[in-house]
Amino acid sequence: MTKIDKINQKILQELARDGRISNLELADRVGLSPSACLRRVQELERTGVISGYRAVLNPAALGIGFVAYIGVGLGEHTKSAQEGFERALQRSPEVVECHNITGTIEYLLRVECADLPAYKTFHTEVLGTLPHVTSITSYVVMGSPKDMRA
Q1: Which residues of 118-150 are buried (b: 16+ CB within 10 A; e: fewer)?
Q2: pLDDT for 32-91, tens place per residue?
Q3: d(Cα 52, Cα 77) in Å, to the nearest integer?
Q4: Range 116-121 contact pairs with CB under 8 angstroms and sequence separation of 24 or more
Q5: Are the CB atoms for 116 and 64 separated by under 8 Å?
Q6: Rounded to whole angstroms, how far apart are CA atoms 26 and 80?
Q7: pLDDT for position 85
Q8: What is the largest CA-CA distance in the chain?
Q9: Is 44 helix (H, G, I), strand (E, B) or coil?
Q10: Are 133 and 75 in contact (CB under 8 A)?
């Protein structure tokens, strides 16, 4: 396991903020030589601390104007019911996150779509038709004052 010292923490913070930063700029920001910085980044990648890099997309530019978190309860608590539910969600592009959680419900979903009518279609024609689904509670996102994914 890679030691996460203060310098590695700074490297991770800078890369999380801008994954396309040059090694030269990153080294300058964290106070290392470029070669030492590159070695540390490569070690963080090799050990899986950094598992990948990705682009942050602008939802509005993609026509996504509606975001909701959905709590889903299942009536049957079997492995088969959970696997069937999870397989069905893999085929639903509106579901961008699916978390199996503890508590009064089994799943928390993040759903993104064009608008309220598109969400209603997803709610009625996808979630509402899945076997074992006994409750659906929608929490519409009105704003995101802090979103570390953006």
Answers
A1: bbeebbeebbeebebbeebeeeeeeeeeeeeee
A2: 999 999 999 999 999 999 999 999 889 999 999 999 999 999 999 899 999 999 999 999
A3: 34
A4: 116/66, 118/66, 118/94, 119/66, 119/68, 119/94
A5: no
A6: 47
A7: 96
A8: 58
A9: helix
A10: yes
The first and second tokens of residue 99, run together, are 């978390």
Q: Using CB atoms within 10 A of its CB, is residue 11 exposed (0-12), middle (13-18) or buried (19+)?
A: buried
Three-class DSSP category at 60 = helix
Burial call 61-97: b when 16+ CB within 10 Å, e when fewer? eeebebbbebbbbbeeeeeebbebbeebbeeeebbee
Token pair of 109 as six digits = 């979903």
| Residue located via tokens 């106070």 | 31
The single-letter code of the amino acid at 103 is G
